């Protein structure tokens, strides 16, 4: 593995460790054999983040290339590309995906991209909401009925956005 820029490791449903790296690939390690089992290739720039979607035996990666990709952990194939830049709901977007998070049902994906935050309905493959934040989004997470966005100005600030998961997930400022 060359060009390792950063590592963001998780444990998937298979008991393997998945990691995002600076060479535009994600890697799956066999913990027992201490070797690389699979390389997930498809991004055109380094990866910022990775999250497990264990209920579907998938991982999702976010990249400097501006996309999030959903990967099948059994085959290593990319099965869906999420491109926040192409969605018309997002007015001010930066060309990278810096952070991603799944809700507890693993049906909703939050993507942080510069000063933009978007929420995606994964079963419908659509962006249902997007907002511009006051500063670059460093991290996102779901907590019950809200999305938390960690932004950076001169110090770390946590912004909370309430969400309603009924027919559609909506974001709005408190």
TrEMBL record:
<dbReference type="InterPro" id="IPR019775">
    <property type="entry name" value="WD40_repeat_CS"/>
</dbReference>
<dbReference type="GO" id="GO:0006406">
    <property type="term" value="P:mRNA export from nucleus"/>
</dbReference>
<dbReference type="Pfam" id="PF00400">
    <property type="entry name" value="WD40"/>
</dbReference>
<feature type="repeat" description="WD">
    <location>
        <begin position="40"/>
        <end position="81"/>
    </location>
</feature>
<dbReference type="InterPro" id="IPR001680">
    <property type="entry name" value="WD40_rpt"/>
</dbReference>
<keyword id="KW-0677">Repeat</keyword>
<protein>
    <submittedName>
        <fullName>Uncharacterized protein</fullName>
    </submittedName>
</protein>
<dbReference type="GO" id="GO:0000346">
    <property type="term" value="C:transcription export complex"/>
</dbReference>
<dbReference type="InterPro" id="IPR036322">
    <property type="entry name" value="WD40_repeat_dom_sf"/>
</dbReference>
<dbReference type="GO" id="GO:0000347">
    <property type="term" value="C:THO complex"/>
</dbReference>
<dbReference type="InterPro" id="IPR042626">
    <property type="entry name" value="THOC6"/>
</dbReference>
<dbReference type="InterPro" id="IPR015943">
    <property type="entry name" value="WD40/YVTN_repeat-like_dom_sf"/>
</dbReference>
<keyword id="KW-0853">WD repeat</keyword>
<comment type="similarity">
    <text>Belongs to the WD repeat THOC6 family.</text>
</comment>
């Amino acid at each position: 593995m060359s060009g390792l820029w950063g590592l963001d490791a998780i444990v998937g449903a298979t008991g393997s460790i998945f990691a995002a790296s600076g060479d535009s690939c994600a890697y799956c390690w066999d913990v027992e054999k201490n070797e690389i089992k699979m390389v997930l290739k498809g991004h055109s720039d380094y990866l910022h983040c990775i999250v497990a979607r264990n209920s579907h035996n998938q991982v999702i990666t976010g990249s400097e290339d501006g996309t999030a990709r959903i990967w099948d952990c059994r085959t290593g194939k990319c099965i869906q590309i999420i491109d926040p830049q192409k969605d018309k709901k997002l007015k001010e977007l930066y060309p990278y995906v810096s952070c991603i998070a799944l809700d507890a049902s693993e049906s909703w994906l939050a993507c942080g991209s510069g000063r933009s935050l978007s929420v995606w309905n994964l079963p419908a493959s659509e962006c249902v909401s997007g907002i511009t934040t006051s500063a670059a989004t460093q991290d996102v997470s779901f907590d019950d009925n809200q999305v938390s966005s960690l932004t950076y100005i001169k110090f770390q600030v946590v912004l909370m956005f309430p969400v309603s998961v009924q027919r559609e997930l909506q974001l709005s400022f408190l």
